[in-house]
Amino acid sequence: MKHLVLLGGGYGNMRVLLRLLPNQLPDDVTITLVDKVPYHCLKTEYYALAAGTISDQHIRVPFPEHPRLNQVFAEVTNIDIENQQIICKDSEPIHFDDLVIGLGCEDKFHNVPGAEEYSLTIQTIGKARVSYQHLSNMPAGSIVGIVGAGLSGIELASELHESRPDLDIKLFDRGTRILSAFPERLSKYIHEWFTDHGVEVVNNANITKVEPGLLYNHEDPVQCDAIVWTAGIQPSKVVREMDVEKDRSGRVVLTKYHNIPEHENVYVVGDCASLPHAPSAQLAEGQAEQIVQVLQKRWNGDPLPDELPEIKLKGILGSLGKKQGFGFVADRAITGRLARLMKSGVLWLYKYHNG
Question: Is CATH 1.10.1040.10 the classification given to domain 109-231?
Answer without folding.
Answer: no
